Amino acid sequence: MSSVQxxxxxxxxxxxxLGNEVRYNGGHKQSQLCRQTLAQYFDFQPLCPxxxxxxxxxxxxxxxxxxxQAPRAVGTVSRERDVSAxxxxxxxxxxxxxTDISGLIVMQxxxxxxxxxxxxxxxxxxxxxxxxxxxxxxxxxxxxELPIExxxxxxxxxxxxxxxxxxxxxxxxxxxxxxxxxxxxxIAFHSRHKYLLMAHNPLKYRELGRLLAGIxxxxxxxxxPRYFAALMAALQKCATRGTHxxxxxxxxxxxxxxxxxxxxxEIQQLIAQYRSGVVPLVVPLTLLKHHFRRHPDRYIAVxxxxxxxxxxxxxxxxx
Length: 319
Fold this sequence. Notes:
The chain is an alpha/beta fold.
C-alpha cells in the first residue's frame, strides 16, 4: 500500500480548546486531544467569536433565549444586551474568509460555538436543550459541506474517526478544485472514495454512482459541487460494523485468485470476528494490507478507505 504521508491540513478551532484564556471567566477548556494529538497532524486557526465581536475577558456570560430554532444571545445579567447580530455577522465573515480550512472543531454547549444541545432559555426560565451556538449555526448554514464537530463528541471513537475521515476527504476535494474541476478528475475522486462511501452510506453510494453515470452531459463546474455536497452529507453517517464488514468482503474479493484457501479462510474468519465485535477494525484491515503488499492491485492502492487518515492516529484501533 502507499506510504505517502497525507498533507498537513488546516482546521479552525475554538481558541479555548487550545488553552487560550479567552472564556468569560478568563479561563480555558484545553483539549488534550486537540492540543497534543491532532496538533501533530493539523495546523490550527483559533477563533473566539465572543472576543472577536468585542466582548472582554473576563466578561458577563451570554446565553441563548427564545425560539430554539432561532434563538437570541443576550447577557445573563444585562438582558437588554443582545449580541445576536454581531455573532451572526462574525460567522458570515469567517465562513467567507476561511476558504483554506478543511474542518472546524467547536466548544460544546457554548452559546456562540456549540454545535448541538445548547441550552436555550425560555420565558419561564427553563432551558430547552436543542439549540445551536449562533456562530456555529451560521457557519454550518453557509458552509454545509465543511466537517464540523464538537470537542466533547470527539471523545467518542466512532465520531472521532468519522470526523477525521471527512476532513481528509474535504482536503482532497480542495486540492482537486485548486487544480481545476474536470470530468476526469471528478470520476477519479469518486473512484478513490468508493469504498469509504460504501462503508458510511451504501444507499448514497449507489445514488452518487447513478449521478456520475451521466457526467458527460453536464458541466463539471455545475455537477462537481452538487456531487461533493451529496458526498459530504453521506459521509456524515457513521459507518457500522456491518457496513465495514461488507466493504472488507468486497476488498477480499480482489485477492481471491492470489491467495490459497487457508489464507482466504483466515481473512473471512477475521472479518466475521470484526462483525461480531470480537476484534477492532484494524485487525482484518491490517491482514488485508499485508496481502495487498504481496499482491498489489492498482485500484485498491488508491482507495481512501485503506488509509483515510494518518495511521499513527490509530483511529481504527477502537472501532
